[in-house]
Amino acid sequence: MSTATAPTRDSAGRLSALAGSSSIFSKSLRDSRRAIAIAIAFVAFVLLVGAAAVASAFGTVETRQQMVGLATTLPAIFQSMLGPPVALDRLGGLIEWRYQIVLGVLLPVWSILALSGTLAGEADRGSLELLATTAITRRRLALEKLAGHLVSVLIVLAAIALVTWLCGIAFGTLPGDAISPEAAFGYAALTGVLMLAPGGVAFAAAPFLGRGAAAGLAAFVMVASYLVNGFHDSIALFDTMRPLSWYQWTAQHIPLAGRFDWGSIATLATLGVVLLAVGVGAFERRDVGRTIRLPAPHLPGFLLGLREPLGRTLAERLRASTVWGVAIGLYVLVVASTASSLADVLHKVPTLEQMMRFLYPDIDYTSVGGVLQLVFLQFGLIVFGFTAATAVAGWASEESSGRLEVLLSAPMSRVAWFLRSGLGTFLAIAFSAGVVSLATAIGAAGQGSDAGQPARGAFVLALYGLAWAGVGLGVGGLVRSSLAAPTVIVLTVGSFLIELFATALKLPDWVAGLALASHYGRPLVGVWDPVGIVVSLVLAFGGLAVGAWGMTRRDVRG
Amino acid sequence: MTAVIQTEELTKSYGEHRGIIDVDLTVNEGEVFGFLGPNGAGKTTTIRTLLDLIRPTSGRALVFGIASNADPVAIHRRIGYIPGEFTLYDRLTGGQTIQYFANLRGGVDREYQASLIERFDIDPKRRYKELSKGNKQKIGLVIALQHQPELLILDEPTSGLDPLVQQSFFELVREARDGGRTVFLSSHILSEVERTCDRVAIIREGRLVKVASVEGLRDLAHHQVELRFSGEVSAAEFASLPGVSDVSAQDHILRMRVSGPITPVVRAAARYELLDFVSREPTLEETFLAQYGHGHAAAAADAGTTPAGSAS
Question: Is the backbone of residue B176 left (phi > 0), alpha (psi -120 to 50) or beta?
């Protein structure tokens, strides 16, 4: 009789296991390498360039005092959205006040996508069944997957703390500009719990709803939480709901301004952990890959687009386009509903009214169109860029799923397929803009304002989305369809960052001009810049034509 | 005979990865042509090149006399195709999916379409996403067959189908041939290929290694010989004979493959007390495995024996 000896693993073996694919945890961590690198690059870019911009624009005591004066006279709605203006005479206070929204809303998207898909995505692919039938328990499987993502987040948070601390050293110009390690750590902790909470919602919901619905639910909860906190001063219902918003819980934790509220961080962290535990428990108890089917209206037969690829592409994208349109439209309605209260505030503070007239002489900022132009458009364009990316990703799935191979075996040329499916994608994007336009009209009418002008102006979103979608389709046709959606995302985020930093960094005009959004004029108040319209249409249809040409020259991927 | 498919030194390389190399192939009108090879041998690459889904690095492919990359639409108008792996529209029902592709082609006989749905026992009202792998495959088959094309190009068409549906499918293939149409199919169901195909090509590591009729392919190959003796014999003695390979021994039985004349084996066996002598032609499967050098291992595994030793 022989005795089985358990294999032992030396320290080098353990290290290679951690870096390699010998456990679910290490595989998850390994799969996150690219996401970690992108997140660190994005965070470093935003913080370093943001700090440089702040140091450049507010390098003297006088400019800082002017900023303090301006911020404290801002209407409550702006103060709620940006957070309370604390210690704006210090570099850290300015960075957090100006850029927290970027990290606090965009980074959680990574957690939502990762934690909604870490198990449910494997279930969709069918690989979860193989994993679940290995000699490990389901609980351990879920915990290792979870640990992979949490360690990835911790790596990014460490980078945030380090870069934040370095910002104080590199860009501090006045006394008090140094950022202490405790403040940097506190800032990373805040970002971490703001990622953990929506990620936890996604992870807890995924075993019940599946990947897509769980991600959608988590995104909805996060945005709702943000809006409830940001607009509680203007909307009575939101004021009532405010205690439910985790952005409100952590509103007094402003570490870069020297204000700490560790209790709120601990509370939000506890919520996140509870949600993650719910997710692990649900995964352990429920049938693998079985989800609750949410009731969704079926499209009538004539809307299924069964005649040819243009209609089929539009029909396939219609559901996502509607969801995006309704979500952005709801945000428009919220902003529109604040128009009258904003006007009241401005009338009560004559100096502020004078300043607004000076800064925006051609905008009636008391009208719904004016408020949307000031408060909504910049954010709306970046979100609509993601809408376009979703539509383009759907288009790209025709090839990546192998469907295109069957389609092209029909008597239809590649150019014909490309043009028709591309136009179908454009129509889906325009449909989302149409929904937003409808919401704009409703919001304006509800406030007794002119509905037509802002409703027409909302189609600027379609122009913006079509432009980047056209470039994405061009790259997809020329090189590889899987590159199309990432191209749209890179262009959207890149354009947003240029717009965000170009003026503050006093970059040359041609660099600032690369931001497509700066070429539309003020469409929500009826002032259009033809340059933006022409450039958008050229990018959209030029990209479509280039992509169709490129498609004839390359192999179809199977 | 008219060549429906003709390739001339058809080559496709994927950078460092091998695709296909100098493939010369002719498929004639009205024949069922089997295309065999293990995973990764180049079957799908060849098929995708014929359809202009990928472009040859060198050489050319002609379908109906038309260069595949000159006028692919003209070719596609006359073919039906099912890829080895595919996904269709999750939210459409099976019936809607079939209808969409019928609309793309035009001119589909609704009665024939309905008969295919019935023969494959498809529930056209279920969503594609909810179908099993085999039922999804059936949808793909109807899409390929419904317009009664002159040429069917089928890449692993029976993948995921249960035996009864496989039988229905091969019946349809035979009907297509009887109707004068041409079928080019890759498959791993070698027994069905043997029963259905007129000619077979074997591709290995991107190169065509054999093209012959099914009968011809078997004639060219070895015989499987089994000798039963009353006592011990030396397996090594038989293994050294010309044309003999893969000798295995179990009890007093020797099994071997013999290529070419069988006379040396008969003479050697005559020196012992021989109780039984069985010689049979190999199946297509055995031929196929022999082409890949797996014959020995497979035969040994089947017989539960160890290779070449002495019969004791």
Answer: alpha
Please report which helix (H) or strand (E) contains residue A244, including its range.
Answer: none
pLDDT reported for residue A373 = 87
Which residue does chain A place closest to B71, by CA atoms?
Answer: A413
pLDDT score for A181: 95
Q: Work out the minimum CA distance from B202 to partner chain A, whole angstroms.
A: 22
Contact at CB, A558 and B81, closer than 8 angstroms: no
Looking at the predicted structure, is the pLDDT value of residue A345 above 80?
Answer: no
DSSP code at position A287 = P
Which residues of chain B approach chain A closer than 8 Å at the C-beta?
44, 48, 51, 53-55, 72-74, 76-77, 79-83, 85-89, 91-92, 96, 99-101, 103-105, 140, 143-144
**B83 to A402: CB separation less than 8 angstroms, yes or no:** yes
What are the residues facing B204 on neighbouring strands? B207
* Beta-strand pair B58-63/B32-36: unpaired
Asked whether the beta carbons of A141 and A127 are under 8 A apart, the reply is: no
Nearest-by-Cβ selection for B77 from A301, A401, A411: A411
Residue in chain A lying closest to B53 (CA) = A556
pLDDT of amino acid A14: 55
State whether residue A552 sits within 8 Å of chain B by CB: no
Cβ separation B96–A409 shorter than 8 A: no
Q: Per DSSP, what are the bridge partners of residue B23?
A: B10
- How far apart are the CA of A398 and the nearest CA of chain B, in angstroms? 9
Closest Cα in chain B to A407: B101
Position of tokens 């934790």? A253
Predicted local distance difference test score (pLDDT) of residue B295: 43
The phi, psi pair for B228, rounded to 5°, reads -115, 125
Contact B223, B279 (CB under 8 A): yes
Higher-pLDDT residue of A70 and B39 is B39
- Listed in sequence order, the residues at least 6 apart from A103 whose beta carbon sits closer than 8 Å to its beta carbon are A43, A46, A160, A191
> What confidence category does residue A2 fall into, taking pLDDT thresholds of 50, 70 and 90?
very low
* Contact predicate A111/A275, CB 8 Å: no
* Cα A352 from Cα A74, distance rounded (Å): 8
Q: Which residue of A has its CA nearest to B153?
A: A409
Q: How many helices (H) and strands (E) does chain B have?
A: 12, 15
**Whether pLDDT at A163 is above 50:** yes
Nearest CB neighbour to A406, from listed B44, B88, B91: B88
CB contact under 8 A, B104 and A558: no
Contacts of residue B101 in chain A, CB cutoff 8 Å?
406, 410
Q: Supply the pLDDT for residue A370.
A: 85
User: What pLDDT digit, counting tens, does each position of A85-127 carry?
Assistant: 888 888 999 888 878 777 888 899 999 999 998 888 888 777 7
Spatial CA neighbour of B120 closest among B92, B87, B144: B144
ipTM for this model: 0.76
Among A556, A538, A322, CA closest to A417 = A556
DSSP E strand boundaries for chain B:
3-14, 17-28, 32-36, 58-63, 66-67, 79-82, 151-155, 182-186, 199-204, 207-213, 223-229, 244-250, 253-258, 274-280, 306-307
Lowest mean pLDDT among A150-159, A223-232, A252-261, B65-74: A223-232
**Which residues on chain A are in Cβ contact (under 8 Å) with B80?**
409
| Distance, CA of A556 to CA of B54 (rounded, Å) | 6
Dihedral Cα B43, B47, B48, B51, nearest 10 deg: 180
For residues A521-538, average pLDDT: 94
Task: Average the pLDDT over each of A14-23, A109-118, B275-284 and give the range with the smallest value.
Answer: A14-23
- Give the model confidence (pLDDT) of A396-436 as tens digits: 999 988 899 999 999 999 999 999 999 999 999 999 999 99
Report the residue from A309, A405, A555 with minimal CB separation from B86. A405
